[in-house]
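Example for tutorial group B:
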């Protein structure tokens, strides 16, 4: 099944227009293996999954912070069917999904006119120039605090041992 996603970041209206061939299951979130770049404190590593089953597209919430379809919160870990044109919301993002009789598979989803003018003034948020930046962007605030406290502890230990 070929699906088109128009992912809009709410804080600045940047967007990604993506097309995927979904064979069975695709997991979206902060994880580097995610097919789309989703960042933010409210986004889980594995936030939601799209599942193709018998010609239908199902969505499954894998997060603590919730996944919403057309404004209604999904029950956790219970796949529910999507309809072409549904809008999936996760913290900081709106994702419009279409497939089937929508746009031709050879054409990307067209962004709304307001998003085009805003995106033209800044770099797209999906453009990551290095694997190091991608890796560093995958950490949550709590993980950064933990790493920082470990590094400070190591510096104190090394300083103490050198005296």
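The residue assignment follows.
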């Amino acid at each position: 099944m070929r699906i088109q996603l128009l992912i809009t970041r709410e804080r600045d209206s940047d967007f990604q227009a993506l097309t995927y061939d979904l064979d069975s299951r695709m997991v979206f979130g902060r994880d580097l293996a995610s097919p789309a770049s989703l960042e933010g404190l409210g986004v889980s590593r594995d936030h939601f999954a799209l599942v193709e089953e018998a010609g239908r597209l199902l969505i499954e919430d894998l997060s603590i912070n919730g996944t919403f379809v057309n404004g209604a919160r999904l029950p956790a870990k219970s796949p529910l069917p999507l309809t072409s044109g549904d809008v999936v919301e996760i913290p900081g993002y709106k994702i419009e999904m279409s497939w089937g009789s929508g746009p031709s598979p050879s054409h990307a989803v067209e962004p709304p006119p307001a998003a085009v003018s805003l995106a033209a003034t800044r770099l797209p948020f999906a453009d990551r120039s290095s694997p190091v930046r991608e890796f560093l962007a995958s950490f949550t605030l709590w993980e950064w605090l933990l790493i920082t406290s470990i590094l400070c502890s190591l510096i104190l230990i090394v300083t103490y041992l050198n005296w």
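The two ends are 65 Å apart (CA to CA). Compare this with the pattern of hydrophobic and polar residues in the output above.
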